[in-house]
Amino acid sequence: MSSQTSNIQCDTSTNITNTFNLANMSFSSRLMLGTGKYNNLLEAKRSIEASKTSLVTVAVRRLQGVKKNHQDTLLNILNWESLSLLPNTAGCTTVEEAIRIAAMGREICKKIGQTENTLVKLEVIPDPQYLLPDPIGTLKAAEYLVNKKFTVLPYINSDPILAKQLEEIGCATVMPLGSPIGSGCGLQNIENLKIILENAKIPVIIDAGIGTASDAAKAMELGATAILVNSAIAQAKSPILMAASMKLAVEAGRCSYLSGRMEMSKYAQASSPLIGISV
């Protein structure tokens, strides 16, 4: 039995130990959630709770617009004893902007009591129409932030060469898109994602494009370490129910990956033996 399959822990109710590590931090769920696009804060809070996630990402720029002493924010209503914050640089179009916003994100982590949290989801996106990340800008910003002791999670196109370069400069993970942000089109770059997963020696988190639970399960079946979902939950008719379904899909996909699927055949094969059957 391989080390991957021998490490799986399932009980009779099929609850799976989903723990994974990023740098020196450990997380109890392989489902990560974004926090934008919800109808209201209560819906966001209940969806996060239903997902059983342990890591949520918040755009630092969005928090900048909140007035001081304003109580109705995600920072005030979520339980930061059970959740880790992943500040992100969404909305940044240049390297300099992303670096500045990343530093602000670290200060926000300190304000909620997560003084050892050095996480940053790095986004450098100058393209306003398709929201595709800038590979050169991302690499430059990532190198600077790694040198400043940030735990960098860079959002990238499904580019195997860039993914390897980011790994080599010390990023904690790479986060290739499945399809464009908010599109809900699922995994449109499967062959490139397979190459990234095959070559990576760090966790690979598939981010962007997940539209429904089957997309999440497929991403995990490919061998992804985790997935990050926002629009598929926030814009569902029932976000809370979709959050719960994403939790189950991630667990099912991970278990399926570890179990090792059967080989495919172009011919039918009887599932019941024919030996001993009289004609």
Keywords summarizing the entry:
279 residues; alpha/beta; TIM Barrel; 3-stranded parallel β-sheet; 11 helices; globular; disordered N terminus
Structure description:
The protein has helices spanning 3-6, 41-51, 60-64, 74-77, 95-111, 135-147, 160-168, 190-199, 213-221, 231-234, 239-259; strands at 20-22, 25-27, 31-34, 55-59, 84-88, 119-122, 151-156, 175-176, 205-207, 226-229. The chain has a 5-stranded parallel sheet with strand order 5-4-3-10-9. The radius of gyration is 20 Å and the shape is globular. The protein has 11 helices and 10 strands. The protein starts with a helix and ends in a 20-residue tail after the last helix. It has one domain: Aldolase class I (TIM Barrel, Alpha-Beta Barrel). The protein is of the alpha/beta class and 279 residues long.
**Poorly predicted residue ranges:** 1-15
Number of strands: 10
Proportion of residues in helical segments: 25-40%
| Count of helical regions | 11
- Compressed to H and E, one letter per element, the order equals HEEEHEHHEHEHEHEHEHEHH
Straight-line N-to-C gap = 40 Å
In CATH terms, what is the architecture? Answer: Alpha-Beta Barrel
EC number: 2.8.1.10
Main location: cytoplasm
Pfam families: ThiG (PF05690)
Active site: 121 (schiff-base intermediate with dxp)
